[in-house]
């Protein structure tokens, strides 16, 4: 809104032309969301603590979690969402369907996550809503968003699936694109949710993936750079850089409070919203497979849970000492900080591989 308001005075004040540059507004978006989260973070933590909005600890989790993490406030995703939304509303082009789609996914998945957190707090356990209810709700929300997005978007190649490392390998999914996009949104949302189990573990990988896609969305929306990199040019996609910048800023601000030992957890409010947002960005830029590469840590966490469940149901045996896999390494005796930092290193490597796919075509 602020961006569109300032455009009215461009003819009078020439220096306002700088706001037309996506890179400038991306930087503003990052610093705005960062500042907001840093400012409101402390008061929110005090309020959540006074209202007993505390994180229920898994009974079957690592023993030290019960000692160290009990009594820590949750629903920190509210702080992230406030910083994210205010920043995007200020500096984003709200007439751009891509921005509106991202906002819808972030808010709707965030509300679902908040309801799940509320149930956990009210029932004083880590169960929350049933997994069936959560998945069905995510699918419905995703279908609504994808259908509206397809209807209003002007990109004729929206149903195409592009493969990294191959410049001419393209599959038109047709109507199958809808269930595919829903799978990306629901899968990425739950993958980030499963990763959010240790202090700062999910936050930094989200920052890395958002950083990668801030660059990807910019070059995808620039006809010169997209032609040079031989990736599909999608008009209006560059605006998503502002959304990614807001994610980075909000998560950096949240990490200030979430760094070990965490003063607050993001809860499902944050993890479902951020995961869904990354999925939306991957769909818009037509880099869904690159999203799976850069967010490979999230994929690993999700796969570890699926493998554990399937193995136990078929054989009665567990492959990992505990799933998701970060708890497996804790059970093996790795200190929490060691698990987190090593997983961050893996995320950095995967992010670099994902960016390398842009040139290796």
Explain how this protein is built.
The protein has 361 residues and is an all-alpha fold. The protein has one domain (22-356). 67% of the residues lie in helices and 2% in strands. The protein is built from 15 helices and 2 strands. It has helices at 2-7, 22-50, 63-68, 77-91, 97-123, 131-152, 177-195, 203-220, 223-229, 240-258, 267-285, 288-294, 296-315, 325-331, 336-356, and strands at residues 160-162, 170-172. It has a two-stranded antiparallel sheet with strand order 1-2.
Order of helices and strands: HHHHHHEEHHHHHHHHH
Cα shape = globular
Contiguous low-pLDDT stretches (5 residues minimum) are none
Residue share in helices? 55-70%
Radius of gyration: 20 Å
Strand content: under 5%
- End-to-end separation: 38 Å
Largest sheet: 2 strands, antiparallel
Domain count: the total is 1
**Average of per-residue pLDDT values:** 90
Order of the strands making up the biggest sheet: 1-2
Query: In DSSP terms, counting alpha (H) and pi (I) runs of 4 or more, how many helices?
Result: 15
Number of strands: 2
The secondary-structure class comes to mainly alpha
């Amino acid at each position: 809104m602020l961006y569109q308001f300032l455009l009215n005075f461009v003819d009078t004040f020439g220096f306002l032309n700088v706001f037309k540059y996506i890179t400038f507004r991306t930087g503003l978006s990052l610093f705005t969301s960062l500042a907001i989260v840093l400012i409101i973070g402390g008061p929110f933590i005090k309020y959540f603590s006074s209202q007993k909005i505390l994180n229920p600890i898994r009974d079957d989790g690592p023993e030290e979690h019960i000692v160290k993490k009990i009594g820590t406030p949750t629903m920190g995703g509210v702080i992230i969402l406030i910083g994210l939304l205010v920043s995007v509303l200020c500096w984003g082009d709200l007439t751009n369907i891509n921005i509106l789609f991202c906002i819808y996914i972030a808010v709707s998945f965030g509300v679902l996550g908040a309801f799940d957190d509320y149930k956990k707090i009210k029932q004083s356990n880590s169960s929350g809503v049933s997994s069936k209810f959560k998945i069905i709700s995510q699918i419905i929300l995703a279908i609504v968003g994808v259908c509206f997005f397809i209807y209003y978007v002007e990109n004729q190649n929206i149903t195409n699936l592009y493969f990294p490392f191959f410049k001419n390998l393209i599959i038109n999914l047709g109507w199958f694109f809808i269930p595919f996009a829903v799978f990306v949104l629901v899968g990425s949302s739950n993958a980030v949710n499963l990763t959010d189990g240790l202090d700062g573990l999910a936050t930094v990988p989200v920052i890395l993936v958002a950083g990668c896609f801030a660059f990807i969305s910019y070059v995808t929306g620039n006809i010169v750079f997209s032609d040079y990199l031989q990736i599909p040019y999608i008009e209006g996609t560059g605006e998503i850089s502002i959304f990614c910048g807001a994610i980075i800023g909000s998560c950096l601000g949240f990490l200030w409070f979430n760094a070990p030992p965490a003063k607050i957890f993001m809860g499902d409010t944050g993890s479902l919203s951020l995961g869904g947002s990354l999925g939306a960005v991957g769909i818009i830029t037509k880099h869904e497979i690159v999203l799976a590469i850069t967010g490979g840590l999230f994929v690993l966490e999700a796969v570890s849970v699926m493998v554990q469940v399937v193995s136990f149901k078929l054989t009665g045996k567990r492959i990992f000492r505990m799933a998701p896999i970060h708890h497996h390494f804790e059970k093996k005796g790795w200190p929490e900080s060691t698990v987190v930092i090593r997983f961050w290193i893996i995320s950095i490597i995967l992010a670099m591989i994902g960016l390398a796919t842009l040139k290796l075509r």
